[in-house]
Amino acid sequence: MSDSRRVATVRDVAKLAGVSPGTVSKALNGVGQLSAETRAKVQEAAAALDFQPNHTARSLASGRTFTVGVITSDSFGRFTIPVMLGIEDSLAAGQVSTMLCDGRGDPVREHQLMERLIGRQVDGIVVTGRRRDPRQSLGRVPVPVVYVLSESLDPDDLSITYDDEHGTQVAAHHLLSTGRRHLAYVGGPERHLASRLRRVGVERALAAEGLELDPNLAMYGQWSESWGRSAATIVLRSGRSVDGIVCASDQIARGVLDGLREHNVHVPDDIAVVGFDNWDVMVQGARPLLTTVDPHLESLGREAATRLLAAIQGDQPIEGGMVTRPCELVIRDSA
Amino acid sequence: MSDSRRVATVRDVAKLAGVSPGTVSKALNGVGQLSAETRAKVQEAAAALDFQPNHTARSLASGRTFTVGVITSDSFGRFTIPVMLGIEDSLAAGQVSTMLCDGRGDPVREHQLMERLIGRQVDGIVVTGRRRDPRQSLGRVPVPVVYVLSESLDPDDLSITYDDEHGTQVAAHHLLSTGRRHLAYVGGPERHLASRLRRVGVERALAAEGLELDPNLAMYGQWSESWGRSAATIVLRSGRSVDGIVCASDQIARGVLDGLREHNVHVPDDIAVVGFDNWDVMVQGARPLLTTVDPHLESLGREAATRLLAAIQGDQPIEGGMVTRPCELVIRDSA
């Protein structure tokens, strides 16, 4: 929606057809009692003006029946769930319903879904995905679009995401402020932007204290508990006196906790451990209960929906840009 | 869709309007080049016959553009994910896209969603939810509907789900066939049908060997790891010589495994443990790797979509009934 040229409104169509805006809405939405001639007259005027029937028209005719489409690349996965809950939370007050479609990360499929959603008259689209890695833009779309979690590569799109770097910076700062000095970082795969950014966050917190992250204690691996268990062993066998570990996910952190326990290392007294995600399934299963970074995915979903709704209701294009929200450290027992 | 009376088809409308079926489709879908008069003539004929524009009409005009709506009560949760993947898997071959809506278990909201989906011309609806507990029917709907996972209380609806009893029966049978004789059952909340049915499965397997489930070793609790850990302690302190534990979920089983390990009980040699769900996150994190019951949710989703697609393409109502599919025991290291 970076197109700011004037588009025809319901009022323009009504004027040309010589009817009221309400009649335009009824004619184009196929509701209410209208003669075939009136309907045809409106359709001709709409075609002449290249009018795209929009939310305003429909809401005039039918009350609040907004629908927002959500396209995810996360295969309905666990990152989409909280984002969707946030979107719904925000939209429910406005009696807006959502339809979630899975693009499977395939641009061709996503375009098909987008066209189908528009064909089914959604008022706006939220695009979301798995983790932070930037994604292709859907391009020009005739309804407002907001990207959330996964940022769009097109700066003319509005993207709302969280600040990975800030997240681990706060986590590492907490470790430093409670007396730790020798930190390790256990990341996911290096090819994932989130893994790399979260490492930078740890480095920044250390730099602020005049310290450095030992490259031998900055590790990349998998997003899994078993990698976390292996990483705990690597840290303990490194011969370095580590007293705090920042992990790039809660699954990794849980593996680290289990690995440390098996080596009779006490958490948090000997080594403090922080996770990332605040994923209840992992946090509640971990012992001790996991201190972790919450990226507040629900808030991102709420914000995306609020911005989308404002654009829909105000009939305004969405201003492009990148919005990055801070994460929050949730302190429990592991650090 | 238990209504079997004859409804008007595209051909009926075409005959009355004196046009071809293709023209009917174009007119009612607002696509293609048609005069306003032809469009009006078709609309009048459709109204006179009380014709509901359907999938066949739209597919005639636009090729394969089927869309299926999915209503879940699972808040986009982890039971919906595999069901959705199965549905999409089945539908993708037919170029069908899906739209997922969250009814939050609220019948009023579900009806609104259903109406909106139909207003947006979906060709069929799948209703799914969290676990097995039966749910209210959506009632009479003008497109085919299939219930999956959560069964409909209306026997005129088609419900496809898995067999809880069979699942734990196979699990308990496996324990018995490998020499165990003293089984415990660790369930979720007693109010959940799945908890009660899974207990019956264990009892049946024992009965087949002339054994009984000790009521003191059949426990209800929560769907959580911490309940599993507590249950392990209860079993060990019961004074009974348990050699096998059937758990009602993988989360419970993982807690049982951790609890047993802390008491230095060796799994599977001292006590064998079986879970239920085959949830990768829990299975892969558990040590030893968890032997568990797979309810094959993806298969259920695929079957639901296949039945729905057949009904849509054949323009046939769906025959009501209850289809229950067996579970499969996936043997790993814990039993």
List the helices and strands and how they pair.
The structure is a homodimer of 335-residue chains.
Chain A: H1 10-17, H2 21-29, H3 36-48, H4 55-62, E1 67-72, H5 80-92, E2 97-102, H6 107-119, E3 124-128, E4 145-148, E5 158-162, H7 164-177, E6 183-186, H8 193-208, E7 218-219, H9 225-237, E8 244-247, H10 250-262, E9 272-276, H11 280-285, E10 291-294, H12 297-314, E11 321-325, E12 328-330
Parallel strand pairs in A: 1-2, 1-3, 3-4, 4-5, 5-11, 6-7, 6-8, 8-9, 9-10
Antiparallel strand pairs in A: 10-12
Helix pairs in contact in A: 1-2, 1-3, 2-3, 2-4, 5-12, 7-8, 9-10
Task: Pick out its properties.
homodimer; 335 residues; alpha/beta; 434 Repressor (Amino-terminal Domain); Rossmann fold; 3 domains; 6-stranded parallel sheet; 6-stranded mixed sheet; 16% strand
Summarize the structure.
Two copies of one chain form a homodimer. Helix content of chain A is 43%, strand content 16%.
Q: Can you walk through the features of this model?
A:
The structure is a homodimer of 335-residue chains. Chain A is α/β, with parallel strands linked by helices and 335 residues long. Chain A folds into three domains: 10-62, lambda repressor-like DNA-binding domains (434 Repressor (Amino-terminal Domain)); 67-162 and 297-327, Response regulator (Rossmann fold, 3-Layer(aba) Sandwich); 164-294, 3-Layer(aba) Sandwich (Rossmann fold), CATH 3.40.50. Chain A contains twelve helices and twelve strands. In chain A, the strands form two sheets. Chain A has a six-stranded parallel beta sheet with strand order 2-1-3-4-5-11, sandwiched between helices. In chain A, strands 7-6-8-9-10-12 form a six-stranded mixed beta sheet, with helices on both faces. In chain A, helix 1 (10-17) crosses helix 2 (21-29), helix 5 packs across helix 12 and helix 7 runs parallel beside helix 8 (193-208). The longest helix of chain A has 18 residues, at 297-314. The model of chain A is unreliable at 1-5 and 54-64 (pLDDT under 50). The interface between A and B is large, with 42 and 42 residues.
